[in-house]
Amino acid sequence: MNHTRPKNLNLFTIRFPISAIISILHRVSGVILFLLIPVVIGCLSFSLTEPGFENLQGWLTNPLAKFIFWILLAPFCYHLVAGIRHLLMDAHIGTSKRGGRLSSILTLIISILLVILAGVWLW
Which residue among 30, 37, 40, 67 is least packed, with the fewest CB closer than 10 Å? Predict the structure, then answer.
């Protein structure tokens, strides 16, 4: 057995390709969305009564609340676009090295545009 192979234990020196970063961010956004499920269900149950709905509407007129809601929409927008990218890759579209890089860049650009549009929609 050859035990003299080089070992890189410093993870900060590894440079990931953009497609790997996009894939990792898709998983991170999925975890964030999973953690937001109780918040969404709580807001939904709060809004099902008439006074609760009026209170929730009142809260969402506050610019800070709109900003927080906008930040919470960002993982959803990203996860949606990255999920479509993964579905296309499952259909063997964009599986080459060049196609993967292009789809990663498009995923990032479209996600940023969707987050900006969500902010415009809120304000």
Answer: 37
Residue 86 Cα distances to 33, 58, 79, 91, 117, angstroms: 17, 39, 10, 9, 23
Buried b (16+ CB within 10 A) or exposed e, 55-69: eeeeeeeeeeeeeeb
The 10s digit of each residue's pLDDT in 55-75 is 999 988 999 999 999 999 999
CATH architecture observed for domain 19-122: Up-down Bundle (1.20)
- pTM here is 0.82
Mean pLDDT of 43-55: 93
Average pLDDT of every residue of the chain:
91
Which residue type is seen at 51? P
Write the DSSP assignment of 45-111 as a string of letters: HHHTSHHHHHHHHHHTTSHHHHHHHHHHHHHHHHHHHHHHHHHHHHTTSS-SHHHHHHHHHHHHHHH
